[in-house]
Amino acid sequence: MVTKTVDLRSDTVTKPTEAMRTAMATAEVDDDVLDFDPTAVRLEAEMAKITGKEAGLFVPSGTMGNLISVLTHCDVRGSEVILGDNCHIFIYENGGISTIGGVHPRTVKNNSDGTMDLDLIEAAIRDPRGEIVYPTTRLICLENTHANSGGKCLSAEYTDQVGELAKKHGLQLHIDGARIFNASVALGVPVDRLVQAADSVSVCLSKGIGAPIGSVIVGSKSFIAKARRLRKTLGGGMRQVGVITAAALVALQENVGKLESDHKKARLLADGLNQMKGLRVDPVETNIVYIEIEEGLHMSAAKIVKNLEERGILVMEISSSRIRVVLHHQISASDVQYALSCFQHAVKGGQIENGN
Fold this sequence. Notes:
Helices cover 41% and strands 17% of the residues. The chain is built from 14 helices and 13 strands. Helix 7 (156-168) links the parallel strand 5 and strand 6.
């Protein structure tokens, strides 16, 4: 019988804290579609300040935040966006920029650190002289931290270089900053510096910093004005939204400071896993840990995941030989030790079955 559950599937699984629930229950609210909800306005202003942008807009999800941002920049159907072949917008957002916005994605190979080579980005920009046959390049997208690369951080210097390239060709730069606070803490660089070169940024509230719902997109006042209309078009305009945004304000106050601890626990877990025969862990920079199952173990990811689940450890199977684990503020050091003991049990079970 499972007596303890340690949910490491994602940092999106956190439950609202008591402080969040209290803030939600007592939030000052108004109709955010007819006018402006005062608590939402506070959150939007705070996020704009943190990111160094003119204005912000609360949206129900990160997927909608990225979709609105891309569509605001690429407001002519047949526009093209350059983005990484392993990025969240391209892989995990239902192809919304194409199906809803008529925006064509042009992918560039993501390196193992989440970057794209500058020369490859520039080579992907369409020659305006070929507009009779080509889509029109209007936007470049980056992701920081880069989830599929194991939560790798993009430096301010790299982002600046991409921003300069965008300006050189008259393009805009959007950053999917779902875990930008994780990047800021890991690099020791303020958020506003990391996104200084960006024309827009989407920041997830329900990932690293542990709020229950939503994202905020930031940019210029004119960008946000256009984005607000698109939010309504896509069904994202909500009424007394302060009930939700109140929790996000608490998350900003209480949980950003906990991210360094999340990163330390991720490294602790990774170090322990690397000592187990048959497992190999990618270098860890933030709160995401990818585990490779070596062929010699003769165990599938599905089998390890099932074995762990029987002991209350929930992780995510990525492929037949790859597992993802994500740390968050509701995972304790003792949870990490328990998870390691369960991984050890699972791996030893596989070795015994295979006569090792």
